[in-house]
Amino acid sequence: MTRRDADPTTQGRTQTLERTQTQRPRLYRVLLLNDDYTPMEFVVMVLERHFRKAEQEAQLIMLAVHHKGQGVAGVYTRDVAETKVAQVTAEARQHGYPLRLVAEPEAES
Ligand code: TYC
Questions:
Q1: How far apart are CA 31 and CA 33, in angstroms?
Q2: Looking at per-residue confidence, does 75 or 15 come out higher?
Q3: 32 C-beta closer than 6 A to ligand 1
Q4: Cβ(66) to ligand 1 under 6 A?
Q5: Residue (of 95, 43, 98, 80) closest to 65 by Cα position
């Protein structure tokens, strides 16, 4: 962080201000959206392979999405979240499935 110092002894030169708090990157939720055509097994496989879920948890997340319309597959920094959305969407399309995912920022803490 820099600012022009009003102190006349530093003659308006740019001063460096120290900040002791470490900045944490904003995190993004990757949401899985329900649809009527993507097979349940494909969604479970996606959760296991791309979001590192154990089979039981993957099943629970998939069923929650199936019943509620959407659910959180994982939480990542922006780049990772957007890459997962792109990779999984591409894989679904290769199989002819309409599966949709979106990345959305978490509320700031
Ligand atoms: N509703 C789908 C079916 O009945 C299964 C499904 C679950 C699809 C989760 C997408 O994100 C999803 N085959």
A1: 6
A2: 75
A3: yes
A4: yes
A5: 43
Ligand 1 nearest atom to the CA of residue 32, by list position: 11
pTM listed for this prediction: 0.84
Classify strands 14-16 and 70-77 as parallel, antiparallel or unpaired.
Answer: unpaired
Per-residue burial over 62-86, b = 16 or more CB atoms within 10 Å of its CB, e = otherwise: beebbeeeebebbebeeeebeebbe
Residues with Cβ within 8 Å of residue 95, at least 6 apart in sequence: 42
Whole-angstrom distance, CA of residue 68 vs CA of residue 77: 25
CA 104 to CA 109: how far, in whole Å? 15
C-alpha of residue 3 to centroid of ligand 1, in Å: 53
Does residue 92 have its Cβ closer than 6 Å to ligand 1? no
**Distance between terminal CA atoms of the chain?**
21
Instruction: Give the model confidence (pLDDT) of 45-54 as tens digits.
Output: 999 999 999 9
